[in-house]
Amino acid sequence: MVSSIDGLVSGLSTSSMISQLMQVEAAPQDKLKAKAQTAQSAQNAYQSVNTKLKAIKTAADAMQSLATWRSLKTESTSTSVTAAATGGMSGMSGSLTFDVDQVARAQVSVVKNIDTTANTYPRSFTITNGSWSDSDADGTNDLFTAAGAATTITIPADQEPTAANIAAAVNAAGLDVRATVVNTDGANGVLQFSGTKTGAGNGFQVDLSAGGLTAEDTPSQSALLRVNPGTAAEYAVSSDTNTFSGLMPGLAITATKKEAGVTVTATSDAGAVTAKMQAMVDAMNAALTEVKTQTAYNVGTKKGSPLTGDSTVREMSQAILGTVSRGLTYDRTLPDQTTETVDFGSLSQFGVGLDRDGKVTFDAAKFTAEYNKDPQKIQQVSSAYAGQVEALADKQSTVITNAVTGRKNEIDSLNDQISSWDVRLVSKREALQKQYSGLEVALGKLQNQSSWLSGQLAGLM
Which residue intervals define the domain Flagellar hook-associated protein 2 N-terminal in the entry (predicted)? Predict the structure, then answer.
């Protein structure tokens, strides 16, 4: 890099002159930077529009999903029994009446009247996993059946065999059983073992007989419902938890206390379906607004937006509005696998229309009323319309994606040219600095020669 010191001999501001010359030299690069910035703004605008198109596609896809049309609204005659739609494609309308004979619980076993300060308890004992059943059909689980070999639990040798250390050893064993010591009066207390899972199949037995201790069991039990009670169609169903997921398709029923004569009803959720149609219309309007924003021209300031003059994007709005204005015609597959063309006509028949501002409108109340009147028909025509909207959004998104790719390639090319200019400008600045530095040296030599000649002439006179 050649350095220079402003006009020591010439008196000229060479650094200022070089800067001005460099501005002239950099003018082509500045134009390239401006073009790159414009292209970047356009690319960002295209991406914004594309985001809205993808939102339309997502909303239209949801409108066609069977899960949408099988959304359920539930009711229960009991405050202690709830029913929740699980979603998916299995939901079906219907009702079910049942008695809640018992609710699920985890096992609790207690060793009573222990001295919580004593250190004479057994150092080793066993816990056996298994299940409980009602041996005499009296409604109480009283028969334990082991599910495998017993697990031996041993208090470490460096610890005393106290009730607290028994509990600690159980909790460290990794079983589905937790233990705790509860002081009831002074040093008197209980050693309690609690299962971590509900259901008759999640029981256990604690054997502390080596220390003369006996645990009193409150067995685990499963929840039990009697469906269609008092009829020839009565049957019982159990669950390890208080939730039953297989009684009605698409529903999870949860019971929290014993109760008779509970009825759960599931009906098609028109509100959920209507909300999906509203979401699709909102997505379409969001895309229309985005296109308008990105193509707008301000007459007052005479300034355009990044995509002003882009006919492809402007025509996109007309294509979206056209899905409403031209009505609905679609192909339907008949039971014999032949196809017929259905000319449904105006979408206003189920609440979709256009306003004067170029937006899509939606009458939710009318859509809901038409759906309740004929769910199958509205499902068919709404899905058909959503399919056309999705196809349009997908097609337009492909066009915009290609435009984004094109702009990206343009920006990359411009940035490469800008980088090349950086190298050229550095070389030009060095050349100018060398040139002006040389000029100063030459002027300095001439000045020295002039001074010498002046001295020689003065000596002759």
Answer: 10-107
Q: Strand (E) positions, 44-162? A: 72-76, 81-85, 94-102, 106-115, 124-133, 143-146, 151-154
Q: What is the per-residue pLDDT across 292-323, written as a single tens digit (0 to 9) for each?
A: 999 888 888 888 888 888 888 888 999 999 99
Residue pair 47/376 in contact by the 8 Å Cβ criterion: no
- Give the integer Cα–Cα distance in Å for 380 and 364: 17
pTM over 0.70: no
Q: Which helix (H) or strand (E) holds 394?
A: helix 375-460
CA distance readout (Å), 180 to 114, 170, 193, 302, 454:
13, 9, 7, 80, 115
**How many Å apart are CA 372 and CA 366, to the nearest integer?**
10
Question: Are 449 and 443 spatial neighbours (Cβ–Cβ below 8 Å)?
Answer: no
Question: Which tokens is 342 given?
Answer: 């259905």
Cα distance between residue 227 and residue 209, in whole Å = 43
Distance from C-alpha of 341 to C-alpha of 362, rounded to nearest angstrom: 25
Reading phi first (left if > 0) and then psi (alpha if -120 to 50, else beta), residue 217 is in: beta
The upper half-sphere exposure of residue 86, i.e. CA atoms within 13 Å in the direction of its Cβ, equals: 16
Cβ neighbors of 358 (< 8 A, separation 6 or more) are 288, 317, 321
What sign has the CA pseudo-torsion 342, 348, 350, 352?
Answer: positive
Kindly state the tokens that stand for 364: 């939710």
Pairing outcome for strands 223-227 and 151-154: unpaired
